[in-house]
Amino acid sequence: MNYNNYVKPVFGARQLLIALLLLAIIPTPRFLVGGVQLGAARREAAAGDYPTAASIYTHAAGRLPWYCTVYGEAGYAHHLAGQPAEAVTFFSRGETCRGLSMEQWLAYGDALEALGEHDHAVRIWKLALVQHGPSPAALSRLAMAARNAGEIDHAIDLYRRAIELSPGEAETQYQLALLLVAVDPSSSLPVLMQVSSLDPDREAHIREIRKEINRALLVPDPAYQYTLAGRLLGSLNEWDLAGEAFRRALSFNNQYAEAWAWLAEAKQSTGSDGRAAMEKALGLDPESPGILGLDGLIWMQMGRPEKALASYEKAAALEPENAIWQISLGDASTSAGDLSAALLYYYRAVELAPMEPSTWRALALFSLNNDIDVAHTGQAAAEGLSRLAPEDWLTYLVSGRVSMMLNDPLAARTNFLKAIEAAPEEPAPHYYLGLSFLEAQMFTLAYDKLMDVISLDPTGLYGWQAQRLLEVYFP
To answer: Assign residue 373 a region: left if phi > 0, alpha if psi is -120 to 50, beta otherwise?
Structure first.
């Protein structure tokens, strides 16, 4: 062969194009695509775009079935995106191959809890401790689950174990203190003091709790002490623990009518039927205005305002100068549809207690909620409220709503903003400010504010109303 005549091939532009085309039609390995998707998902998660991250993670997991870590990351992204069912699917795969971090185990249980699978959630949090060792976060979750199951002593033990691991967690200390208020009020005091030292922002709140406990302890009667402790817990909306305190009060004195009445309210407030306990209370002390008032409240909660009226009328007859019974009669009459009678009751409450903000607030809210003479009655009540409680966020809210109904949007928004400044965690001022923005066709501001309401009150009335408005105006 004559090598002198051999011509070397030239790899020019045309040949390069052909080579690239050949490569393009060769299938790319799945793991390479999966790796690219995994990187993209992690970037979206780091940027806080969890819905997008979750979607990309789903595809990446399909291409990387052997890579256990991706299941935990995918589950966590779905959890943060508010998709608990999808999160559980991926977490369960991560559990099978033992690829979950402690944070992911905790989120796994949280997702199950969100789906109502409480027993399964408890099992997962226990497994988190087995897999990764002691964790204050896992112990606190198990403590809350024990509390919800009525296992108070076990919950106390779990919280104490969590505090041993992380003594600087104010919220854990606070949850322990609430349990102790229900079962041993005196022992809650040092824990409450510890909460104040760890979180100075709670100091005023904790001071009020300690004051009520100390007041209860001044009387050497356990039934009385536990009843006051239960009432305190009820005022904090901790009705399950309040019920525990009332039951302990009755264990010392089964004939204590007030404890029976408050136990009835605790049952009603936690979804049980409180009528039997209330009948027991009325049988023991049928002439107690306080018990009659609670009886009326329970009838109202049961949707029987005509029954509530009868109880409130008896209480008012026993204490004719007590404005609270006039407000209660006004509330019951409103629910029964007798607005004329209700208005007279609210006026009577103001006459009895003209220096009490609650009477003016009740009159103002009646006027606003029923659109009755807002220009005169509502405005006058709002002014009376402003004189007596000028810095209260509810005062700003009422004044804002009056201005809104009287077509003064600037004054309304000013008051709503002041209410938000005074109580930023309350959803009502955010909701009405969002409504004001909608009325002014300031849609971007309205959207942002309604989203704030949903964030602050995801399962409450204001959150529900905000969601409906978003569906109508921002489909």
So the answer is: left
Q: What is the pLDDT of residues 33-47, one digit of tens each?
A: 778 888 898 999 999
53, amino acid identity: A
Q: Is the dihedral of CA 425, 428, 433, 438 positive or negative?
A: positive
Within 10 Å of residue 187's Cβ, how many Cβ atoms?
13
CB-based contact 209:181 (threshold 8 Å): yes
Average pLDDT rounded to a whole number, residues 385-414: 97
Q: Which amino acid is at 370?
A: N
All structural domains of the chain = 29-133 (1.25.40.10), 298-371 (1.25.40.10), 391-475 (1.25.40.10)
How many alpha carbons fall within 13 Å on the CB side of residue 227? 22
Chain mean pLDDT for the chain: 93
Residue closest to 462 by CA, chosen among 421, 434, 427? 427
Q: How far apart are CA 362 and CA 122, in angstroms?
A: 44
Rounded to 5 degrees, what angle do the CA atoms 188, 189, 194 make? Answer: 100
Query: What's the Cα-to-Cα distance from 182 to each of 106, 147, 179, 434, rounded to whole Å?
Result: 28, 12, 5, 40
pLDDT, tens digit (0-9, with 9 covering 90-100), for 22-81 = 434 444 455 577 788 888 989 999 999 999 999 999 998 888 888 999 999 999 999 999
Cβ contact 294:261 at 8 Å: yes
Query: What would the pLDDT profile of 313-346 be if each residue is shown by its tens digit?
Result: 999 999 999 999 999 999 999 999 999 999 999 9
Separation between Cα atoms, residue 166 and residue 159, nearest integer Å: 10
Q: What contacts 318, CB < 8 A, 6 or more positions away?
A: 287, 289, 292
Dig out the tokens for 70 from the structure.
């991706």
